Amino acid sequence: MPAKTRWVVTPPPDPELVREYASAFGLAPVVVSLALQRGHLDRESLEQFLHPRLKDLGDPFSLPGVAAAVQRIFEAIDGRQSVVLYGDYDVDGVTSITLLYSILRAFGLEARTFLPTRLEEGYGLSVKGIENSFEDDPPDLLIAADCGTNSRDEARL
């Protein structure tokens, strides 16, 4: 017997607070309601949610492996190595490899891009997708963007 799904619905926010913030920020009440339901209950938190700034982001080097990844990318740039940017076919994947492509190009490195198709290579980082991305010419470096964090076997290729 399949497990029962248990839906958890956040209670609607205080209508007076919704009106107050909608007026103060010039937003539709539905937008304010959504932000409040996501936990942005005070003005400062709501302001940061609505108007994010780079200085409010966490340190990317606190993520495991980021320093090593950055070093490896610099090695590829310095050595003019061949690079394949492997993204996912959703908007996050396309955006990710577009940004990476632009950054590498600004450093003088031309990279190949690859977006898998769901029907041929499946979802995320796959052996077939990796093989197809090589185009009979394996790169010195393959960068997986917006995919691959759970694809340990494929990443070892």
Keyphrases for this structure?
three-stranded parallel sheet, inorganic pyrophosphatase (n-terminal core), 46% helix, mainly alpha, elongated
Please give a structural write-up.
There is one protein chain. The chain is mainly alpha-helical and 157 residues long. It has two domains: 15-53; 60-155, inorganic pyrophosphatase (n-terminal core), CATH 3.90.1640. The chain is 46% helix and 8% strand. It has helices at residues 15-25, 29-37, 43-50, 66-78, 91-106, 118-121, 127-134, 152-155, and strands at 83-87, 112-114, 141-145. Strands 2-1-3 form a three-stranded parallel beta sheet, with helices on both faces. Helix 1 (15-25) crosses helix 2. The longest helix has 16 residues, at 91-106. The chain is elongated and about 60 Å long. The mean pLDDT is 89.
Q: What's the helix count?
A: 8
Distance between the termini: 39 Å
- DSSP summary, beta strand count: 3
The low-pLDDT segments are none
* CATH level 3 topology of the largest domain: inorganic pyrophosphatase (n-terminal core)
Named CATH architecture of the largest domain: Alpha-Beta Complex
- Helix-strand topology string: HHHHEHEHHEH
Sheet of most strands: 3 strands, parallel
Widest sheet, order of strands: 2-1-3
Radius of gyration: 21 Å
Amount of helix: 40-55%
Q: In percent terms, what proportion of residues is strand?
A: 5-15%
CATH class categorisation of the largest domain? Alpha Beta
What would the average pLDDT be, to the nearest integer?
89
Total number of distinct structural domains:
2
Shape: elongated
Overall SS class: mainly alpha
